[in-house]
Amino acid sequence: MADTWLVMGLGNPGPRYERTRHNVGQMVVDEVAARRGANWKQHRAGARVAETWLRPGAAKLVLAKSNGYMNTSGGPAAALASFFRIAPDHVVVVHDELDIPFDALKLKSGGGHGGHNGIRDIAKALGTPDFARVRVGIGRPPGRQDPADWVLSEFSATERKTLPILVADAADAAELIADEGLLAAQQKVHAPRA
User: Fold this and answer.
1) In what helix (H) or strand (E) does residue 183 lie, and over which residues does it extend?
2) Which residue, 76, 120, 135, 187, could crosslink 46 as a Cys pair with Cβ 3.0–4.6 Å?
3) Alpha-carbon distance 82 to 85, whole Å?
4) Which residues, at least 6 apart from 105, have a Cβ–Cβ distance to it below 8 Å?
């Protein structure tokens, strides 16, 4: 049987948060699902799940979006990993990142949570921080705006012009991790753009 990967896009539930910076992770897994015509279904783990494959004979992807809020992402992540028998080294979490400029991506595994409550909760629930992360840059707020308000605000009109490209690039990165491994994905994603 091909490898199975859990790809979890972080965000908050409901229309109020749908288009906010904090929900860019969910936008990315929506893109991966849309590419394959995969349908979202409710799962007893407290998440919506879409099951698909990278391509015939390749890795299986379990795409997931928690039904709860960002800071409670760990319970659904751990429950899905257990249900599908997926080890932490086959978990990919896609999330917004304040410390990376808008329209940039960074991939990593392990390390701290950098103040990101979703990552903190998943690391606690999985019992390890050693899972892959697709960190989607949303940049720091301008002036003295509170970062908590910034992440819950919608992308600006200027940002929305390039957001589909950023989301597509992040979806490519998540697929690359499942297909070729983190190191190969990092070499491609972190390479300077021509």
Assistant:
1) helix 182-189
2) 76
3) 5
4) 134, 135, 136, 137, 166, 169, 170, 173, 189
Average pLDDT over residues 90-101: 96
Q: What pTM does this model have?
A: 0.96
**Number of domain units in the chain:** 1
Report the candidate in 69, 68, 7 with the shortest Cα–Cα distance to residue 35. 7
DSSP state of 143: T
- The pLDDT value given to residue 57: 87
Task: Give the Cα separation of 182 and 91 in Å (integer).
Answer: 11
For residues 17 and 89, the answer to whether their CB atoms sit within 8 Å is no
Q: Is 124 exposed, middle or buried (0-12, 13-18, 19+ CB in 10 A)?
A: middle
What's the pLDDT score for residue 192? 75
Provide the strand spans (E) within the chain: 4-9, 41-43, 47-53, 60-66, 91-97, 105-109, 132-137
Residue 75 CB-density burial (10 A; 0-12 exposed, 13-18 middle, 19+ buried): middle
Return the pLDDT at 191: 83
Give the whole-angstrom CA distance, residue 158 versus residue 71: 29
Active site residues: 22
Please indicate, yes or no, if residue 194 is contained in any of the structural domains. Answer: no
Q: CA-CA distance, 162 to 89, in Å (whole number)?
A: 31
Strand, helix or coil for residue 87: coil
CATH assignment at residue 171: 3.40.50.1470
